[in-house]
Amino acid sequence: MDIDKKILIAPSILSADMAHLADEIKAIESAGADWVHVDVMDGRFVPNITIGIPVVASIKPCTKLPLDVHLMILEPERYIQQFAEAGATHISFHTEATQHVYSTLKAVRNAGCKSGVALCPATPIQILENILETIDFIVIMTVEPGFGGQKFIPEMLQKIKAVRRLIEKHSLPVDIQVDGGIKKDTIGPVVRAGGNVFVSGSGVFNSVGPTESIRALREAAKSY
Ligand code: DX5
Ligand code: ZN
Description:
Layout: H1 3-6, E1 8-11, H2 21-30, E2 36-41, H3 53-59, E3 67-72, H4 80-86, E4 90-94, H5 101-110, E5 114-119, E6 137-141, H6 156-170, E7 175-179, H7 187-193, E8 197-200, H8 210-222
Parallel strand pairs: 1-8, 2-3, 3-4, 4-5, 5-6, 6-7, 7-8
The chain binds D-xylitol-5-phosphate and zinc ion.
């Protein structure tokens, strides 16, 4: 397998300058980003409140990149259709936020999107075992969801390895997205553990700028 091809960088616009969101998205697109990661928070599942359906609809015409919407909201099943209609291409939600993980995954696919399921740091991976065929990507949180700029939790490397083993055991084409604290000094061990889609907010929207930051992330990923 050509691991280079499989490494995808998904900058999180949570750390972008919201007053100039269209320009920020254009900047990551020309810097070679693969997906745009959109963090939706409701002030209930997580303490923070961010952006929602109208913002997804507004940024859709600004980019050709996939829009990867990460729902950190209670009862995500209530909003799948609306996010899909607003332009999401990928939708992930948290197992901890719904009683109905399987039917919500099906709803995401039925809405024409890639289905993702996200696990908080303390959530065991066993919940995935019987529903793998309905999953396009698994999001391993390497921080507690809610805020950008937190420190990567190194204990999650074992969890990522275990998810990679689970997917390989079933020979399924499921991506492993890793979200939280991904920077040039943390991405390498995560590549080695088996992650292949990397969300990075404060690691991309910083004083160095997206072009240099994304280049440095890819370089660090490659050296593993
Ligand atoms: C956290 C969000 C992340 C966040 C990552 O709840 O899901 O996507 O934006 O930010 P950094 O890369 O700064 O940890
Ligand atoms: Zn996220």
